[in-house]
TrEMBL record:
Region (Large ATPase domain (RuvB-L)): 1-180
GO molecular function terms attached to this record: helicase activity
Top-level taxon: Bacteria
Protein's cellular compartments: Cytoplasm
Entry note about domains: Has 3 domains, the large (RuvB-L) and small ATPase (RuvB-S) domains and the C-terminal head (RuvB-H) domain. The head domain binds DNA, while the ATPase domains jointly bind ATP, ADP or are empty depending on the state of the subunit in the translocation cycle. During a single DNA translocation step the structure of each domain remains the same, but their relative positions change.
Binding sites annotated in the UniProt record for DNA: R309, R314
Region (Head domain (RuvB-H)): 254-334
Pfam families: AAA_lid_4, RuvB_N, WHD_RuvB
Protein name: Holliday junction branch migration complex subunit RuvB
Annotated source species: Nostocoides veronense
Keywords from the named record: ATP-binding, Cytoplasm, DNA damage, DNA recombination, DNA repair, DNA-binding, Helicase, Hydrolase, Nucleotide-binding
Keyword RNA-binding: no
AAA+ ATPase domain segment(s): 50-183
Amino acid sequence: SRVLDARGEADEQQVEAALRPKRLADFPGQTRVRDQLDLVLQAAKGRGAAPDHILLSGPPGLGKTTLAMIVAAELERPIRVTSGPAIQHAGDLAAVLSSLDEGEVLFLDEIHRMARAAEEMLYLAMEDFRVDVIVGKGAGATAIPLELPPFTVVGATTRSGLLPAPLRDRFGFTGHLDFYAPEDLALILARSAGLLKVDADAAAIEVIAGRSRGTPRIANRLLRRVRDWAQVHGSGRVDVAATQAALELFDVDELGLDRLDRAVLDALCRRYAGGPVGIATLAVAVGEESDTVETVAEPYLVRQGFIIRTPRGRAASPLAWSHLGLTAPAGTGI
Ligand code: ADP
């Protein structure tokens, strides 16, 4: 199993929860989004009102859930957590909405995967704080309007482009999370090491930070695997030697790319001569879902300049060819 896989160990959720910063001031990186959120929340608190609805978008593992929890903590309000895939019928959403308390934060993870019928109910509720509860069936069904107390939706999505415009428009504030700089990941790792009671050298933390695909979730996961390696094969201390051995064992290369990243680049270069090729075709070539390739692998590869998105599909950059130790064929478009 891949160390960087989105589906993690059984205890991962608990570990993640323990490692989440609780307040905005303890949240390293994403300075822009953090400052913007800080303003929105402080202003709302000052007015004694619920803030605008908040949409957080960006690749997995960058801190969307963490920020949602922080929003509730900063507002000193309870948070209700659910997700798009859990809302398959409008009734599922009606049940959640009608039980919200005043000022409560409703966190909707993967909001782009909510059922269509629920989307419409949600944006009306976000706008008017009202839902129509359908009573009865068929011709005798009637809609009973139900007033809701003001609340704040925090939506998280890896694919903000998939949200219908009317829903997207109901969010007064959208924060786009970007990959973290290695310095920020080093801060996060040092904090995590402290919380996990792992003895870690600054040099080892720097190496892990540079190989974590700009993603705190991956950084924390790698730290735990290096800790395991140090415990089983080393001195128990997370040092550079343990780090390098563990990274090798888990297939993380010098640039932090994992097996899926390299498989995508490999398919793009070797099988499709550098592209351009569509995402669905690439996904079949690496045996993954399109959505996984598009949300998990591609953003970082694009960001690091390995893949170029063109109107005709994805193309390999010269960097992709050289990273695989290949020579780009003469006459490729890019
Ligand atoms: P997302 O919801 O975007 O997938 P999460 O908020 O669940 O990401 O974050 C994944 C893990 O990374 C959590 O354990 C969280 O503590 C950690 N993390 C994310 N962002 C930060 C940050 N800025 N500082 C410290 N830890 C972070």
